[in-house]
Amino acid sequence: MSFEVRELRAGDASRCAELEQVLFPGDNPWPERVFSVEFAHPHTFYLGVFDTETDLMVGYAGLAMLGRPDDPEFEIHTIGVDPAYQRRGIGRHLMDQFTHTADTMGGPMFLEVRTDNAAAIAMYESFGFTTLTTRKNYYQPSGTDAFTMSRQPRTSSPERNGE
């Protein structure tokens, strides 16, 4: 089985919403319209992973760049993998793409993750994320807590160093 990574477009919003319903059923999964708005925002970047045999989107993730271009911060808005395709490195590949972007631009990254999602937390920690704080009742309507995690860039851009 092989996969292809592509930037997501408006036509991909319905599949993202389908996956959200499966992955986050008790925590207000994003509807199609929210994905459409996110895809159109100039400071967000959404990627999808597609099974090349079926052209089915099997994973997706969104990254926002906040702040000034010469002093950016990055926030992972969402990341999800179809349960039938989990444990195949798809989430890790999406994280590779996003950490590379943040490292190239020299900006720290932030995200929220359910405190009970041990697999995601372990993956984020393997990328150098550390827990900053716990946000009580962050996910609604379930009331599940979230960790806010951050990661400093591995490199920094010449602009940030004054070069």
Automatic annotation (TrEMBL):
<dbReference type="Pfam" id="PF00583">
    <property type="entry name" value="Acetyltransf_1"/>
</dbReference>
<dbReference type="GO" id="GO:0008999">
    <property type="term" value="F:protein-N-terminal-alanine acetyltransferase activity"/>
</dbReference>
<dbReference type="InterPro" id="IPR050276">
    <property type="entry name" value="MshD_Acetyltransferase"/>
</dbReference>
<feature type="region of interest" description="Disordered">
    <location>
        <begin position="141"/>
        <end position="163"/>
    </location>
</feature>
<dbReference type="InterPro" id="IPR000182">
    <property type="entry name" value="GNAT_dom"/>
</dbReference>
<protein>
    <submittedName>
        <fullName>Alanine acetyltransferase</fullName>
    </submittedName>
</protein>
<dbReference type="InterPro" id="IPR016181">
    <property type="entry name" value="Acyl_CoA_acyltransferase"/>
</dbReference>
<feature type="domain" description="N-acetyltransferase">
    <location>
        <begin position="3"/>
        <end position="154"/>
    </location>
</feature>
<dbReference type="InterPro" id="IPR006464">
    <property type="entry name" value="AcTrfase_RimI/Ard1"/>
</dbReference>
<keyword id="KW-0808">Transferase</keyword>
